[in-house]
Known about the structure:
Largest sheet: 6 strands, mixed
Helix content: 25-40%
Number of strands: 12
Distance between the termini: 26 Å
Structural class: alpha/beta
Strand order of the largest sheet: 1-3-2-4-11-5
Oligomer: single chain
Strand content: 5-15%
Order of helices and strands: EEHEHEHHEEHHEHHHHHEHEEEHHHEHH
Amino acid sequence: MIKKSFKSIMAAALGTALVASLAACGADDTNKNNPSPSDGNNDPAPAVQKINMLGHTTWFVQGMEAVIPVAKENGFELVIEKVPEGEDGANLMKTRFATNDKPDILFYQNGISTNHGFGTPGDVFVDQEGQPWMDNFDKSAWKNMMDTFEDGKWYGAPYGGTDMGVVIYNKKVFADLNLEIPTNMDQFWTVSEKIKEAGITPIYFSGQDAWTTQLPVLISSASKQGLELIPQINENKAKMTEWEDRKFGMDFIVEAVNKGLANADILSSTYDNAQKALTSGEAAMYHMASWVMNEIVAKYPEGVENLGSFVMPYKGGGEDLAAIWAPKSMYIVKGPNQEAAQKFVNWFLQPEVQDIFFANQGGIPTIKGVTKTSLTPAELDAKAYLDEGRAIGYTPYPLLHNANANLPNYTQELFVKGGRTTTELLEAMQKDLEVDAKAKGDSNFK
């Protein structure tokens, strides 16, 4: 379960979808060298091609607003139709497709499939394999997240930023204590003990907000083991109890608490408490995803520059990977305007244009070569791991049945003395998965 499903979003009022033509005003001399939609050179301005887009209202904010006038100068007039957030808006979009009133580009969640209600992806959307934008995209990092599970094809092109599961740490605390970033668990525990000796909480857990407690486990789960094991779990040929890397994250929580290296008030500590403790230097490390930086920037701006991030060294030896959550996607709809829509996507995903987008909007770019961002130091540290290919999905292969629904509550149990063991909790996840599989009529789970 991703964080965005833990924190509710106020849905926009229902009504007729807002249609707005977002054509730009005239250009000035500062934009003479904007990349062209064809090859990025300084050819004369091309004829304007109208591109109809459809997506949720809040998806078109500062980044796209900054791109719109540049797109107009490069031959694209973007006509964006906005619908409400959540299921209400999604249902409006599905109705549009059902009545054959389709846009040129659909903005939707990643990994779209037949089950999403837009039709069979191969019949409706243009396969992106071999398109120029993929030259600056690490397919291996996003395999099983942004491609379509049904046929393994890439119908979606990335839109907006990703988030990464890492250890957010206070660089000033580390510097004051002459500590290096740990690269294996022996070093991690040694660093933690030295921080404790200095009267600072080494590892912070915000146990009152159950969803936050699962991050160490999601981070440990982001490993290559899942690529082989999860397909077997899906077919009932393996069990959740065999997922050793997932268990590693659970065992880490238990060990951190047993060693006295965590805050004493775990179950009464909140997500906000963690941010305050980390930025103030009362705590040194917090296992979280980079999305926390958006809130820290807003609430504790004085501490932002003191924060960095590193990959949790569960395995050591450079084997560890950052956990990643996929960005949203753009889907080119098959039809009379698909060629123009494809040209826009290829233009939009050039690093130079992504520079414009991310200089005005937060998030970690999935396209390599982006240099102008509004990222904090902690996010820039995380981005480096993605650029180096040291990242993988927080669930590296799709679990067909819901074994994660109760993960926050299960990890919260690890802070209670006398509670279930990590093995017992994995057994509980296996049971959750089997119940869901049987409810769906999966013949592998009779």
